[in-house]
Amino acid sequence: MGHALCICSRGTVIIDNKRYLFIQKLGEGGFSYVDLVEGLHDGHFYALKRILCHEQQDREEAQREADMHRLFHHPNILRLVAYCMRERGSKHEAWLLLPFFKRGTLWNEIERLKDKGNFLTEDQILLLLLGICRGLEAIHAKGYAHRDLKPTNILLGDEGQPVLMDLGSMNQARIHVEGSRQALALQDWAAQRCTISYRAPELFSVQSHCVIDEQTDVWSLGCVLYAMMFGEGPYDMVFQKGDSVALAVQNQLSIPQSSRHSSALRQLLASMMTVDPQQRPHVPVLLSQVEALQPIPPGQDTTQI
Fold it and tell me: For the whole prediction, is pTM greater than 0.85?
């Protein structure tokens, strides 16, 4: 989302009685597109996410994503500006109007630094981790889990503050699995909705009788922390080589030695990347640990990256 702005208008759209000028495409996924638009009423830029809905279930899922955004008014969770459903012949499009972040995502920042042979400093990592934990704490406190936390789903504000986005995979935090059919259904859902190299071990082979809870987010957060420390996720190369991520995540992660990182940060990472979800720290515990490691008082969120 950090593209240069160019006026190449293909017209305007109206959302909630306000007119928005199309500027350019920002990206597209399997069934969604993101455009950069400018509000003609305020001159501000926005990201317009358009989700193609082929059937009723798609419309319900898009509505649910909008509802998830509306649940939160938190500086570390992306807010929803407006939402509507548009008919396109026999199909529908869900439109989510969201704030535009010109700095792009955390992954954009990691890649930018990597291209220069650099990495985030430990102080920068801790400030980012603090904001991400605060966003997750708010999500978990309402009884939900993000389920697809990764560097490309974390935007950076003007001051470098992290903002969690893409709430389309969010669901209830605690899922009670009772029987093999429900286990397989959840496993299939995770395969479709939870990015493989950031997916928790318990989602690869769901047990017939178990509870899947918000600790899946803690594993994903560990993968995000690893990416901030080393410039790539711990299982990115496993996936790119075509090896089994499902097998790799069953073994305790080996953390590379690096003089850039304190033993306390490495221990924090190791605690998140525990295969047994019950042994991972809960987000409020992580939050207090990260606050204790802060180089400046935690109230001063002035991440500069």
Answer: yes
